[in-house]
Structures are given as structure tokens and as C-alpha cells.
Design a protein that fits this description.
13 strands, about 15% strand, alpha/beta, two-stranded parallel sheet, Aspartate Aminotransferase, domain 1, Aspartate Aminotransferase, domain 2, homodimer, 2 domains
Chain lengths: ~350, ~350
Amino acid sequence: MKEERVFNFSAGPAILPIEVLQKAKQEMLSLKRSGMSVMEISHRSKEFKEILEKTKLSIKQLLKIGDDYEILFFSGGASLQFALIPLNFLNKSADFVVTGHWSMKAFQEAKKLGVVNLIYSSEKENFSTTPRKSDLKANPSSDYVHYCSNETIDGVEFKYDLEVGNLPVVCDASSNIMSKPIDIKKYALIYAGAQKNLGPSGITLVIVQKDFLSRAKSNLPTMLSYKSFAEHDSMPNTPNTWGIYLIGLVCDWLREKGGLERIAEINLEKAKLIYKEIDESNGFYRSKVEPSSRSTMNVTFSLPSKELDEKFCAKAEEIGLRNLKGHRSVGGIRASIYNAFPLEGVIRLVEFMRDFRRKYS
Amino acid sequence: MKEERVFNFSAGPAILPIEVLQKAKQEMLSLKRSGMSVMEISHRSKEFKEILEKTKLSIKQLLKIGDDYEILFFSGGASLQFALIPLNFLNKSADFVVTGHWSMKAFQEAKKLGVVNLIYSSEKENFSTTPRKSDLKANPSSDYVHYCSNETIDGVEFKYDLEVGNLPVVCDASSNIMSKPIDIKKYALIYAGAQKNLGPSGITLVIVQKDFLSRAKSNLPTMLSYKSFAEHDSMPNTPNTWGIYLIGLVCDWLREKGGLERIAEINLEKAKLIYKEIDESNGFYRSKVEPSSRSTMNVTFSLPSKELDEKFCAKAEEIGLRNLKGHRSVGGIRASIYNAFPLEGVIRLVEFMRDFRRKYS
């Protein structure tokens, strides 16, 4: 029986590669003919350890990560990291670069736990831009600088790997991890909730430089301690095994697609199509974001009125273009076009945008 | 194509009802004809909110919980609760009842965060028993008393709902939640990692009395705060949506089976069959656990030698009786027979035990 699928622009939890879902479906009752689901086997079993090792290796190969980094999996989403990072690494102070909703949240959570410096904020510019490298001045004694490489809600993305003085860089890459190659050497710690580009919700990938990790505090409660996660290969307790399994399948899929270089080309092609339609719409579609900071993952825009925003979403839903509504805090339209979102769906959206503009402008 | 399944005695992640796996498989690419997997939809969507509400309601109905309790879902496993409970509720001191590996761990984690009193420990008895009610004396000024209702590794289970003076009772019920009816009024807080009786790993059910919840500290980091989870209906961030969905399906299955009264009868019948074989084996199979504290969920025993323990497991594997090896810290044999484990598999195990004894005693 063929299953009807839609074009799902959800910002997260978001579309997964259909090949991954099919594989998970096929193995649901019996992983590799074991007679058990991956959800039914011990995290300490040979079968699961193989999955964990394979997944870590795939991540290292895709992102070209050397043995000077640890690959860890935490539960709890990126939001838990907003607390764990200061709990583990904040001694004197930490510097924050705020370019949208999520980096603001990370800043506010860290504030509860220590001294924080806001070294850049685009809040006054309505989170429409990212800093130029020369805008940023670090506090040399800070323990780290934190930023968010792609702001899902605002549609703002850094086009370079941030560097601020000699500070260790900590990056929330939840919504653009693995969407393009990065220069891993520039990062002390990268974390990413899986539910956008990597897998299901409820699991977070953490890539951390071993040297930086060695500075983490000791004597923290086991489940709040980076060191305990590293010492126990992400398993101080039972991890989200289903999540790790799916991340592994997504990595397999990425490798089959040609790796991050190739996926980055496709992602750019997809984003360009929508931005082109926005730019050529004579102001009917408006992007608040400065062209140089436009996100390749989350294309945000609005129409001349709230009523038109709503009509746009409603009409789109009718033809299977789902979940285009912007985040409740900012309104407008948001097309999230992560790795797994097919080019075909973007073409359909652009056609729809053209038709809609003709009718309502 | 019929899929070969085995009898999976894994202690956790553990066997799930086959009907649940089949339903999840069937809906994998399209939840209720939405054209999207449950893993691909927003946690704020109508579709997912329905799942969350339905799951909470099922839990309330199955455990006969009134509106004076909150039903919450956390990520991170029961081990995360070992830290969160003291972080939120420990002001003066907390009392601990230790009857095995897990309650000991909870005690040790809490120790890092405040004053703790060990008011009972069966460590000297090799964790082979539970206290009589008269054994327990609370410190009247303590904030709560903590215990574990079923020790998965040791195979020790409380046969009554603990009461200690007037202290609020906090219970780790990870491995016997929903295996039998309980008197919910006796508990201030119950928590349970899902991966034994409820669903997949990476998600934890918390049932908390609203009155007790009101004593939780404020100003904690959002993701470490019970209050923020309650205020945001378990969604201060994106929860493990797949986990909640599966717990909902497991609850549907439990209701179809006749609820907790009926499942408790079946569980008792299953456990009795194995304990009877142990007791009638003339000491070939040995249970360390006092008969009145024997677990209905995890039946632990050992054979006359380590070699025989190993041979027992190896021979059992050959005929599809999988994962009978005891926890690495205690050795021996462990048959975990949670709700989803079929009576048929227990009968096969007992037959195998008889044959094995005849051959090797």
C-alpha cells in the first residue's frame, strides 16, 4: 500500500528522510533478524554498542572530526544544555552573542548560574542580522563565548564559524548541524537537539574538544556532568537508544547522498529558490533578515497583512504544503527546509507563492 | 512476511507489547493519515497535543489518579531524577530507604546536593529483603523519604505502599510501575523510567501531588525545575514525542488487557511459576531474596556454580529464551517478566529449567 506523504515544512520536530523511516519501519519488530526491536534490547548489548559506535564514527567522518573530540549523546534537548554548559564550564564569566530567540534563552538560563556578558545583541534590530567579525570583542578572562549558528525562529544564520579572541567557542547548532561542512577546529563544543536535522526529539548530540572537556567541573550530579557522560561513553544511565539508532540511520542516508559538501549544495539551491521569489515579489513577500545573514534552513517572510499570512498558510495546507506558519512569537511564514526536505517540495512552494501573489497582490 | 520474535527477558530496555510495535510500525510514515510520522510533527500541533492529553488521561485512569496530581514527562531517565528531586525538594534533609542498587544510587546522588539520612539499608543482608513497616523511623523534619519499590538488579520488591511517619513519600517505580494497582494517595511523587513497563528508553514518567509540587524551589534552570515542567504541561522545551506516543499506545494495550487489576493477576501467575520451580529444585536454583520480598517483575536466581550459570544462559539462548544473564554487578540469572512478557514464554522457561536441572544436577 502506498502511503500518501505531504511536504512538511515543520521547524522541528521536522521531516525525516523517507528512506530512514522506511528502514526503521522494516526493522521495527526485529532488528537485524534478532527477533527484537532496537527499543527492546539492552543499551549494553553487543547489538546496541555496534549501533552507538557506528553512529559516532559516521558523525566523525561526515564532519571531519579528529580524535581530539568526544561525540556524546544527552537526553533532554538543547534546552538542557543551556543549563549544563554553565554548570560544567562557567567559573569566572561567559560571553554571549545574541542573534535571536534561542541564543537569548541560552543567555538567560546561564545568567541564573553565574556571571554572563552580553558582547553582542541584535535585539534592537529585531534579530535581523549577525555580527561582523570586527563587531565582537571578548573578555579575555571569560571561560567561553556562546552563540547560536542558526536561529530557527528568526531565520538568521551565521555564514562563518565564529571566532572571538582566543576564547573557547560553544555553539548551539541545533537547526543547521550537518547542513554544510564546518571547520571543527574552531569549536570547543557544539551541541544540537536532534529533531531538526538529525533524528527524533528527546536526544541531543554534543561534540566536545577533549581539552575543553578536561576543564569541566567534577563532583556534579552524574546526569548533569559532561565528564561522567564522556567517561561512560554517553551511558552513565540508559540513553535514548531509539534516538541514537535513528541518528545513525540519518547519517547513513547523508553519506549515501554524498556527504555534507553535496547536501550543502542542495540546501543552498533550495533556499535560493525561495529567497529569489521573495526578492522578485515587489515587496509582496518581505524578509526581515539582512541578505548576508539569511538562513539556508529556515526561510522566514511575511505578507502585507496578517490576514494574508493566514490565508497563505490555509491555501498552502490545502495542496499538501504543511506547517508553514511562523513561530507564534513572531508570526508570518516560515519554510523550514532541512536536509531531508526535498527540492521538489521547494519547487511546489515557489510555484504556489507565485500563484498566490498573482491572485492577492 | 511473518517476523520471527524471541522470548526476550531483558531487564530494560525491555520487551514491548507486539501489538504496540505493530501499531507504531503501521503509523511510521503517516500518523492517522496525516502524511507525517509522529516524529515529524510539532509538539505544539493539535495532533500531538491530542496524543499527550490522551496519554495523561490513560495513566490517570489506569492508576486511579485524581486531579490533585500532575502527570509529567521528563527526558533523561530515572537517573536524572536522582538529581532533580533533591535539587527541587531538599531543603533541610531527606530520608532514604535503601534496598538495592538503585535506591543506593539515588541516595548517593542526593548526598552530593544536601543532607541525607539513611534510615534503612539491607546492604549487609546482600539486598535480599525489604523492611517491615515497624523497622522504619522517620526524621520528622525531613523534607521527604525516598525508596525504590522494585529493585531491578536484586529482584527485591515492596509488597506494600511505603509509609514513614507523615513524611511525603517519593518512589522510584521504574521497574514495577503499572504492574499492579497502587494506593496513589500514599505517594507525594512517583517516577519511572519508561524502558521497562511503559515504553522506550529516554523518557521518564513523573506523577506528583500538586501540594508537594508547590514546595519545589523556584529560580532553578528551566530544564531542572519541576515547576517549569508543570507550568508548561511537560513542554518547557521539545519533549521526547516518540516516547510519549509509545507510552500512550502501551496504555491503550493495558486497558484492552483489562487494566491493572487483571495485569497484576497475570504477573503474579507468571512469577509464581518460576519461583515454584526454584523452590522445588532441591537447592539447584537458589534465590537470595526472602520469599516475602520476591519481585514479580525480576526473578533472580543462581545455579550451583558460575559455569552452570553460563551454560544455563547459553543453552537458553539456543532455544530463543534471550537475555537471561544477571546484571554484571551481581551475576547469576535474571528473568525480567514485565507486563509485556507473555505467559507462554514463562512456561517455556520453566520447562527449560526443569530439563536443565535433570541434566546437570
